[in-house]
Amino acid sequence: MGKFLKSLNKTSKKNPCLAFFITFFVCVAILIYKNVYPFGDRCILHIDLYHQYYPYFSEFQDVLRNNKSMQFSFNNGLGNDFLALFAYYLASPLNLLLTIWPHKYIIEFMTFLIVIKISFASMFAYKFFIYHFKVEEKTNNKKEFEKLYAVCLAVAYSLCGFIAAYSWNIMWLDSFALFSLILLGIDKIIRENKPACYYTSLALSIWANYYISIMICIFLVFYFICMLIENTVLEIKDINQITEKTKRSTPIKSVINFAVFSLLAASTSSVLIVSELNVLKYAYSANSGFPKKSTWYFSFLTELSRMSLGLKVYIDDNHLPNLYTGVASILFILLYLFNKKIKIVKKVPRIMIMGIFFISFSNNILDFIWHGLHFPSFLPARQSFIFSFLILCIVFETLRNIEETRIKDVLCSLMIIAAVFIIQFKNNANNTELMFPFLITGGYILIYSILLIVIKKVKIRKTFLIYLATFVFLSELTVNMGLVSFETTSRREYLAKSDDYNKIVEYLNKREGKKFYRIEQSERKTKNDAMLYNYSSATEFSSILNYNVSGFYQKLGLEGGINYYSYYGATPVISSMLSVKYYISTDGDDTDTTKKKIKKIGPNYIYENLYTLPIGFTVPIGSDKKWNEKDVTKIDTINSFVNDIAPENKTKNKTGYKNDTQIIQNYENKMQSQENELLQFSSNLLNIRPGQTTIKIIRPGHLYAVYDHVDIDYLDEYVDEKFKKTFSSVSNDYILDLGDRKLGEKIYLKNDSNKKIKFYLYNLNENKMKETYNSLNNERFELNSINKKGLFNGVTITGKLKTKSSKELVFSIPYQEGWKCVVNDKKVKIKKFKGTFLKIRLNKGENNIKLEYETPYIRIVLVCSIASIIAAILIIRIKRKIY
Q1: pLDDT tens digits along 535-550
Q2: Residue 796: left (phi > 0), alpha (psi -120 to 50), or beta?
């Protein structure tokens, strides 16, 4: 092993490749060990890679191959700007390889990209270490060892805690890989007046993922100031150090280059950033406010323990950072402080910046600032890779000055670490999960300390000992990645429904022709199945979704949250308004009077909803303003909504009560008439026990249930002891559709958490349903066409509608800037229906309608992006000619 490394070390051009391939083979070895396809049936789809990125990659490939609009997609929930989704999730230039990659191996494409990006991070980090620390300028024997250190630390960066925790987050990895090149670019600006590397790497990083680039840009300000001062004050004290290259650069030139090319790098991506910001203003994150007071998440020792080997990665909402950077870094930080050869003026800024990071991980205000004026929803400390890189720079500085490290410094450092471990053992005596990581971390620190002492003591075979330490270090990095990273799931299970759903979508497309319709299903793989299987739906999970839709859903009893909304909980009127025409289920029940079974493909039954409105439907003018959804229950909200949007429904019978318990008391005590209610309180009998609620049907019909909030995920429905279905994500508080039930049947609602749950039951008033549907469908919008073709085009919807009086036409499309409407060749103003959907006012008579979407300001910002690239190239070429 030593001879192999030594032979490569003598050829400097091979060292970047060595760093690349060590990381590459470590990752591949772990994937093989974990039986990842094609070495087994596992795949690394995990968290958002499972629920979001794979469906997005699938949709993006479809867009590229079939020349669909890059500006808008109806497969993204109820519809959203696709360019914004591209900017947030898909902008890596490497993703364009999807055009030639087989569709059935997209998972392997993503796996390949993840490994390649992590490996390039190692290669680029090596380049940085060599240039930043001027290794190539050395002429002594230390040069060869410093190259070896650079390889090891580059691999350590590529396998740090950030990657162990977030390797699945493929959209962040471009910026992670490019980070060291960006810093190298700053060094080149300061030392040689060469901005090309800085501009190119920063522009690519911002283009690939503007969000992680925000954190990088914050750090770049600190780094630039620090390096400019060091280069000016420390590096060129001696006239002998001044070369032709250093003559090119002055502090003023460096500041100008840094400012100009930072702006050019940002404006290069303006076509993506502006489209993204336009959509994000409708997202939940737009409501983030600056923290009113400072709070602390955890102690310094707790944070320090996050640098341990084998510690389970943290991705939840308690802010714990993933700081592993190799156990040796813990020891070498202390040795860095003790090393007298390293100038104090170099130590102070680095330790200060490291301290800022430690405080930032724990303090809410700094956490908010680092994450782009936004608190991250889970996945904490997303800037931790910058901290790890800073630590590795400190380790490199210590290693290159290791001859000044005394044995007593090693022993003193070991004692300090031992004291911290003893305190942590005492504080976490009952936490068995932490014991193994602490023990193995302590063991490795002891090994490194012994090796350091032996190297300092012995005068022969030091080279062998250094290579032995190298092997131990690389093995440690591999062990950590193997223990805590690359979580897997069954590939076969994930793709099990693909063939059947492709057949279903193909069948329905032939059945409907060019008509617009949406599909929903009872058992979905993800909330982005529409993109996974290429159809339009009413469900979405995304960080850029329109939160107004989620709020609207929640008011009407559907599932919704800060970054998702779902068809679960939809009642027939709401379903019809959302143009959900088809419903897929593995349950072949024919009793539902609102649906008709039309076909079976595989184990899946296709149902047609009997009450489906087109993408646009009419309501009385101002009906949404009359609707009061505040301080009432979901059921009251639905009944009120139905009465307000249907003109024939004049009688309103609201309970006015704020919770379902009061509603039941109201019905039981006063027995108010429910003749005009869509959902009527049902007096079916309940028997509530821990883990099971029994409902005896004494009032048959289509039954719905609401419940007080309960913290469980799943609920199983049985009818007369026969399993019917499983309700998932029950803690999200949506209306449960119990189906059509007959007199005397018993429904059993069971949960594995042994919770006592009280349900409030309601029967569907089918006469009211038909009456409401007929009212909304009386003046039917006739869709002529939806044009979604053209990669660089928007979306155009045309249709006509004849009204007997002035009406408002509501489209089941979320309101956002970019939509324009023309009626009878006259531009009309688009307004919001209950702050959520598009609506326009129509006059009596024949109306020819044209609705168009174009990403706001796209033409202007596209010119800005192109102009920035041209300007950067011209400035760089002029500089090269001058110098």
Answers
A1: 999 999 999 999 999 9
A2: beta
